[in-house]
Amino acid sequence: MTETTNPAPPAADADWWRSAVVYQVYVRSFADADGDGVGDLRGIRERLPYLRDLGVDALWLTPFYTSPQVDAGYDVADYRDVDPLFGTLTDFDAMITDAHALGLRIIVDLVPNHTSSAHPWFQAALAAGPGSPERELYLFADGKGEHGELPPNDWESIFGGPAWTRLPDGQWYLHLFDPAQPDLNWRHPRVRAEFEGVLRFWLDRGVDGFRIDVAHGMIKAEGLPDVGFSSMTTGQRQSELLGKGRLPYFDQDEVHEIYRAWRPILDSYPGGRMAVAEAWAETPQRLARYIGPDELHQAFSFDFLDATWSADSFRKVIDTALAESTIVGAPTTWVLSNHDRQRHVTRYGDGEIGLRRARAAALLMLALPGCAYVYQGEELGLPEVLDLPDELRQDPAFLRTGESRDGCRVPIPWSGELAPYGFGPEGSELSWLPAPATWRALSVAAQTGVAGSTLELYRAALRIRHEHPALAGTTGGVTWLEGGPGMLAFSRTGGGTTLTCVVNISGAPALVEGYGRPLAASEDLTEQGSGHLLAVDAAAWFERR
Ligand code: GLC
Asked: CA 314 → CA 157, 317, 340, 506, distances in Å?
C-alpha cells in the first residue's frame, strides 16, 4: 500500500482525464502572492476558487522546481524541490490540498530529456573528466577533426545553433536546447531509476498526473548519426522537420520502453494518475504510439493547434486525430495555445477578427470528444504581446534565433486600472514582463458578469460541457453534417439529446436551421424565420431533444 501525503480527491473516477478540461498554469505569470513580480504557488492557491468557478477539472503547472531559470524552469537542478522563486514544498502541499478540496486535480511538468547544467550530476560529470562514469549519465563525446575541434555530428539545437558545446578539456556535450540544458543518457540504468523515483516522489505528494516535456526526445539513434543537412549547410533548420519528418534525436522506437516502464508505476497509485506527452512525431500514426493502455494516457494534438482558419483544415485534423485515438483506445487531446506558441487570437488574424475566431474556436474545441487543454488567459481572449522591448525578452531562443516565446507569457490581468492589473498583491507594480495598457479591459474583473465577454463565454461553455448528456461521452467520433461550403458542423448525441456545433468559416453570415434551440454562441445570433443567422467567424451550439 502506498503512503500518500496528499491523497487524491475522494470518490475519484479513474477515467477522469478522458473528458477533462485542463487549465495550463504558466506559474511565473499566473498570480504573484509575494509581490516580487513573478507568479508563485501561493498565488495559485489564492486563485483556485477562480479556476473552480471557471469550470475546469484540472490544472497543469509548468515547472516550479529548483532551477537557474535559464529556460523559465525547463532547466531543472533539483527535481524534488520547489525553487524559492515560486515558494516551498509546504506551499505546494497546501496548494494541492486546497485544489483537491475544490475538486481540482493537479498535473505537474516532468522534464526528463535534460537537466540543468547546475544539476549535481552534470557538475560532477564536469569535474570528473573524460571517460569517467559520471560523464556516462549525459551525452559526452569527442569531436571530429584532427584535434577534435569539430562537433561530433551535425545536430542542431531547437533553440538555434549547434547542439554541441565544447568543454575546456576538449570533450563536447549534447544539448538539444540551451547549452544550460545538457541531454541525459537514457540508455543508462541510473537515469531510468532516478526518474522513476521522481515520479513516485510527486505521486506520493498527491499529484494526479504529469505533462512529459519533450517526450519524444529521450532516446537518440545509436552511433549519433548525422542528419545530413543543417542551417549551416543548406540553410534549412533541422527543427523544421518537427512533426513532419524523422530526426535521429527524436521519436526513436526505444523511447517507448521508458513509458512502458512508467505506466505500471502510475497505475499502482489510486485515483487515476495520468501522463500527457508533449511529443512531436512524423505522422499522427507515430504520435498515437505514445498513448494507450501500456504507455501514456494522452498526447497533445498539435495538428489541431496548427490548423489554419478554414473548415477543411479543421475537419481534416479532427478526423485524423479521432481515427487515431479510436485505434489506440485513448482520448484525443485538443489544444489551441500553450506557453511555446503564439496565442491563437493572434494566429487567427489578431485584433477583432482574431478574437472572434478564437471565441469560435473555443466552442469548436469544447464540443469535441476527448480532453481539452486551455492555456491561461485564453479564457480572457488575450492576444500575443507583439511589441515587448527586446531588452525585456527572456526566452533563451531569442538570442540564438531572434524568435521569442515571451509574448504569450505576459502575466495575467486580474483587476484594476494600472498594470500589472492585480497580478501581484495590492499596490504592487512589479511584473517580470509588462502587460499592455489594452489589457485593462480584458482583466478577469472587467469581464466577470459582463454578458458576451470571452470569460463568460468560456464559463457558459464549460458548464454546458459538464452538464450536457450529449457531450458526456468520451469515446466515439462526431457526426459531420453538410452545412455548405466553409461551414463546419457536427453533432454528438447522448441521453436522448443531440448537440450540434456549427462554425461559420464561410466568409458571410449563414442561416442555420434544423438543429434545435441555441445553447451557446460566440456572437449574438439573430432569429430569422425558423432558424438563426450565424455571423461570420462565429460558432454556436444547438440542442435537439
Ligand atoms: C518544451 C517546453 C519548452 C521548453 C523545452 C525545453 O518544448 O514546452 O518551453 O523550452 O521543452 O525543455
From this structure: 31, 5, 21, 13
